[in-house]
Amino acid sequence: DQQVKQNSPSLSVQEGRISILNCDYTNSMFDYFLWYKKYPAEGPTFLISISSIKDKNEDGRFTVFLNKSAKHLSLHIVPSQPGDSAVYFCATRHNTDKLIFGTGTRLQVFP
Amino acid sequence: KAGVTQTPRYLIKTRGQQVTLSCSPISGHRSVSWYQQTPGQGLQFLFEYFSETQRNKGNFPGRFSGRQFSNSRSEMNVSTLELGDSALYLCASSETSGSIDEQFFGPGTRLTVL
Question: How far is B95 from chain A (nearest CA, A)?
Fold first, then answer.
């Protein structure tokens, strides 16, 4: 059973607009959440993270929101750029346990 | 600093064979984790090694095994290959065990089982 779900396999956004990627999880014990970006033929690279004691974390154009009551995580990219086109994975863990990844969302940013 | 390297990058095997994949972590990193990426399943954790000891293990059958050497290089082995083992195998290294957001991934080994 999938403990972390990214229900949108793909997303297409115009350059300059906002990209919103969503992630849902099932276990309320998860206490740390991360987003990774993956280009073809490369390994995932860490993008941004958030602890369960926060509900928002910002890093430049990237903001992650955490709604613990809804067990929902989202990544906002503003403004979106063509170089942001990649597959985005959300991931989570409990304490120092193993990372659990979602299935990924392919983001395409078009001019 | 050189990044995480994985060899080989591509591999084609037939059912029933075994395969060994190699991962060299970033210099100074002592933790190596392995993941399997398949379409529709995302990245699934296989195991983590730290200082030559397996620290954590995912829900994979015993056909999947690994080890880590004293220089922190790691290998994973899959025996009696099945078609469903076709996937991208990624390794990631970090300085210590549990340093999740400082985990750096290699480019992966694409395994195709025919």
Answer: 14
C-beta atoms surrounding A56 within 10 Å: 10
Task: Compute the nearest-CA separation of A64 from chain B (Å).
Answer: 14
CB of B94 closer than 8 Å to CB of B78: no
Contacts of B40 (CB under 8 A, 6+ apart): A103
What is the tens place of the pLDDT at every residue in B61-107?
999 999 999 999 999 999 999 999 999 999 999 987 766 667 899 99
Long-range contacts of B45-51 (CB under 8 A, 24+ apart): B45/A98, B45/A99, B45/A100, B45/A101, B46/B76, B46/B89, B47/B76, B48/A98, B48/B97, B49/B74, B50/B96, B50/B97
For B28-44, the pLDDT digits (tens) are 999 999 999 998 788 99
